[in-house]
């Protein structure tokens, strides 16, 4: 086998490669809008929970009469249940719509890639290993399905929730908001730098997996020849070496991502505890009510957890960007 005829481009340190999926997204614009609507409704419903909690704490125990107090508590708990039920309906609808899109777009992409490969010249198949094409057709499309059908939706939801929580913090407690912004800067900038490295390693890991698949496909397609030359041990060793190289690259990627996750969790936990401390001091000083503090804490949790989730999603998006680059290279190959 000669070297692959597929182009080998240097990976770019940005998710812009996902723009190559635009032709596969356009036919499903209405579905995308519907999924976006459910996503926004689910995020806004989540933002109502802290307000309901504040009302429960500040007003649920106000009536002096025990019977009135019980009725007030029932009313507030029913309101909380209504918010939770709405969140469940909107979240389920978002999940169905987004998962459908992921499956549909992945299927369309596989069909397009397969049809394009079949139209290539005989020279293409002489220079390109079948295993490499199969790896792009299966492994890379699976990565894209994960992002389109799950990670991207989670990322957009956290953008809406994080923005809404930030706006509410600005309205209710500007001082805490300024401190939280400082925590966000500390978390986001290193996470983005680490995410770029994860993407480069992800692209390299996908290439090594494709190499191993190509070797297996090449040998199995010519197994009579291999056995006639008693080359089973040699070919097994060659595949084993390729698989170990892929494993080593994957471990390096996993280590880089684990480091990023450890930093994000540690930083967000520290920011949350600091915000909690500031809130308790304000309650003791009589500056805010206990309900106000509870609302602020929940919004801080939503904001910081949204940023942490976005950092996680960013890593998945970068992996999918590498997979998209590989598939677009294959689709751009001329017969």
Give an overview in words.
The structure is a single chain. This protein has 335 residues and is mostly helical. It has a single domain, classed as ABC transporter type 1, transmembrane domain (ABC transporter transmembrane region fold). It is built from 9 helices and no strands. The chain has helices at 22-25, 29-59, 66-118, 122-127, 130-172, 174-221, 223-228, 232-284, 290-331. Helix 2 runs antiparallel to helix 3. The model is unreliable at 7-13 (pLDDT under 50).
Write down how many β-strands occur, each being a DSSP E stretch of 2 or more residues. Answer: 0
Sketch the topology as an H/E string, one letter per element: HHHHHHHHH
| CATH class annotation | Mainly Alpha
Q: Which architecture does the CATH hierarchy give at level 2?
A: Up-down Bundle
Gross geometry: elongated
- The structural domain count equals 1
Determine the N-to-C terminus distance.
19 Å
Low-confidence stretches: 7-13
Structural class: mainly alpha
Discrete helix count: 9
Features:
single chain; 335 residues; mainly alpha; ABC transporter transmembrane region fold; 9 helices; elongated
How would you briefly describe this protein structure?
By secondary structure, the chain is mainly alpha-helical. The protein has nine helices and no strands.
Show the helix and strand layout.
Elements: H1 22-25, H2 29-59, H3 66-118, H4 122-127, H5 130-172, H6 174-221, H7 223-228, H8 232-284, H9 290-331
């Amino acid at each position: 086998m000669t070297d692959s005829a597929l182009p080998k481009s240097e990976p770019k340190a940005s998710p812009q490669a996902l723009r190559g999926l635009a032709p596969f997204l356009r036919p499903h614009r209405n579905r995308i809008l519907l999924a976006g609507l459910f996503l926004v409704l689910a995020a806004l419903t989540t933002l109502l929970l802290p307000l309901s909690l504040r009302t429960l704490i500040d007003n649920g125990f106000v009536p002096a009469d025990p019977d009135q107090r019980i009725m007030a508590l029932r009313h507030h708990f029913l309101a909380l249940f209504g918010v939770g039920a709405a969140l469940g309906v909107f979240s389920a609808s978002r999940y169905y719509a987004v998962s459908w899109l992921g499956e549909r777009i992945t299927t369309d992409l596989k069909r397009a890639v397969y049809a394009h490969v079949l139209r290539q010249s005989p020279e293409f198949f002489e220079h390109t290993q079948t295993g490499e094409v199969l790896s792009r057709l299966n492994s890379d499309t699976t990565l894209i399905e994960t992002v389109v059908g799950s990670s991207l939706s989670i990322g957009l939801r956290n953008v809406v929730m994080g923005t809404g929580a930030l706006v509410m913090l600005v309205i209710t407690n500007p001082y805490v908001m300024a401190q939280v912004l400082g925590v966000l800067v500390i978390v986001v900038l290193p996470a983005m730098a680490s995410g770029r490295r994860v993407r480069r390693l992800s692209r390299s890991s996908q290439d090594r997996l494709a190499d191993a698949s190509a070797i297996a496909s090449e040998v199995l397609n010519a197994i009579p020849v291999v056995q006639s030359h008693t080359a089973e041990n040699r070919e097994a060793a060659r595949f084993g070496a390729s698989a170990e190289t892929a494993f080593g690259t994957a471990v390096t990627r996993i280590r880089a991502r684990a480091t990023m996750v450890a930093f994000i969790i540690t930083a967000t936990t520290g920011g949350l505890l600091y915000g909690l401390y500031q809130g308790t001091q304000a309650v003791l000083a009589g500056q805010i009510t206990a309900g106000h503090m509870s609302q602020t804490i929940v919004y801080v949790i939503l904001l910081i957890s949204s940023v942490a989730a976005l950092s996680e999603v960013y890593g998945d998006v970068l992996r999918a960007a590498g997979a998209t680059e590989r598939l677009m290279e294959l689709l751009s190959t001329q017969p």
